[in-house]
Design a protein that fits this description.
heterodimer; A: mainly alpha; 9 helices; 0% strand; B: alpha/beta; Rossmann fold; 2 domains; five-stranded parallel sheet; three-stranded antiparallel sheet; 5 helices; 30% helix; globular
Chain lengths: 212, 194
């Protein structure tokens, strides 16, 4: 119970910091919307459904990357991560709190992005939306860990995409597959498995990322 | 109790702390001095458990939950208020009667009137007072203070003097400072880094 209380307190803190600072979410919203608008005018009308779903995933992944790049900035600004690491709570709670907050930001961006996609391109069925949600879980689980690793280094902006994008490829395959394949359920199961494996790995390894 | 022998720290090829011996008994008051770049902050980070020595032995007989660490950085969120910052750390440290303790500290460090304002609006001195509140919030057994007088005005420095006087002998204190004269009367150990 104490673990959950710590996670809730840390997530609420992240949401509050973002509501006050408005550093991340507006940039994510603007990026995802402008990307979809550009794609709408850039790709030919006969490009087909698959191309449109692929572009949706380009927008989602890079929007997430934008949010992840800023995820640990509040902790870096005043060295707060040291304070959190010294606190007697389980250190994985820090990761889980950050992953949940990032998930909320990503959901908020998609509340705008998905209707825009439907408006500009193709309809999305329940399987496609489930694919997006499951991929969000994986993105936030892996991304929060990798952005903490990148934040510790000097070249954060360079390091994060290098670490994150290769690991996001299975999520894109699963997400696009759930939207275009006739066996979308199999892709959802694949995404579920990815989420479970990488969430456990990230949860277990976060302590070693933030300590020497 | 802190006991370290031939403690060395390297970051890559760069040696930032060279063969330091340290011994501070329970209730001791150690003052660490030395010029910029001599490794004071590194030594304090090692004692706090935020880093591990590259070579040598360092034993710190204090649980993580019983350590209070004041760093160069205030370790508080700029976009949160003083109350929100202390409440977050109070929760994580499982402090009983958290609100009363926070209120008492904010009064004592003259931050009560600005308790609901964001830290980003604070002066450097006010932020340092808040950092001190955060450091002593959970009444730690081992207090590690890195340049605690920096940015404090005369009132703030006098307040810190009184705090340290009250703590001396009851809690183990390690202070790195460029103003050793301020804490000379309290010190039981002195470590001069070159």
């Amino acid at each position: 119970m104490m673990y959950l209380a710590d996670v809730v307190a840390l997530t609420r803190k992240d949401l509050r910091v973002e509501l006050r600072g408005r550093d991340t979410l507006p940039a994510m919203l603007l990026f995802v919307l402008s990307t979809l608008v550009v794609f709408h005018f850039a790709i030919p009308e006969d490009a087909g459904d698959n191309a449109a779903y692929g572009l949706l995933w380009v927008a989602i992944v890079f929007t997430a990357l934008l949010g992840l790049a800023r995820a640990w900035v509040p902790e870096q600004e005043h060295g707060v991560l040291d304070g959190l690491v010294l606190a007697p709570c389980d250190r994985s709670a820090i990761w889980l709190g950050k992953a949940l907050a990032t998930f909320v930001f990503l959901l908020a961006a998609q509340v705008v992005a998905l209707p825009a996609f439907v408006l500009f391109f193709e309809p999305l069925d329940a399987t496609a939306i489930a694919g997006v949600l499951l991929a969000d879980v994986g993105i936030c689980a892996v991304g929060s860990l990798l952005s903490a690793m990148a934040a510790a280094g000097r070249a954060r902006e360079l390091l994060l995409p290098l670490l994150f994008l290769p690991l996001a490829i299975p999520l894109i395959v699963g997400g696009v597959g759930a939207a275009v394949s006739e066996e979308g359920g199999r892709f959802l199961l694949f995404l579920l498995l990815y989420d479970a494996v990488f969430a456990v790995l990230s949860w277990a390894s976060f302590e070693y990322v933030v300590t020497e | 109790m802190i006991r370290g022998r031939d403690v060395e720290k390297r970051y890559g090829r760069k040696r930032v702390l060279r063969g330091v011996d340290i011994a501070v008994p329970v209730g001791g008051f150690a003052v660490v001095t030395g010029p910029n770049g001599s490794g004071k902050t590194t030594l304090l980070r090692l004692v706090a458990g935020l880093a591990t020595p590259t070579r040598g032995d360092l034993l710190v007989d204090a649980d993580r939950s019983r350590i209070g660490y004041l760093a160069h950085e205030p370790l508080v969120y700029r976009e949160l208020t003083a109350v929100e910052n202390l409440d977050l750390f109070g929760r994580l440290y499982r402090i009983p009667e958290r609100r009363e303790r926070i209120g008492m500290l904010l009064e004592r460090f003259s931050l009560w009137d600005v308790r609901n304002e964001r830290v980003s609006t604070y002066s450097r001195g006010m932020t340092q007072r808040l950092a001190l509140c955060r450091t002593v919030l959970h009444a730690p057994d081992l207090l590690i203070l890195d340049e605690p007088y920096s940015a404090l005005d005369e009132d703030g420095a006098a307040l810190l003097d009184r705090e340290l006087e009250a703590l001396a002998g009851r809690q183990t204190v390690v202070v790195a400072t460029h103003e050793p004269a301020r804490v000379e009367a309290l010190q039981s150990e002195r470590l001069a880094l070159a």
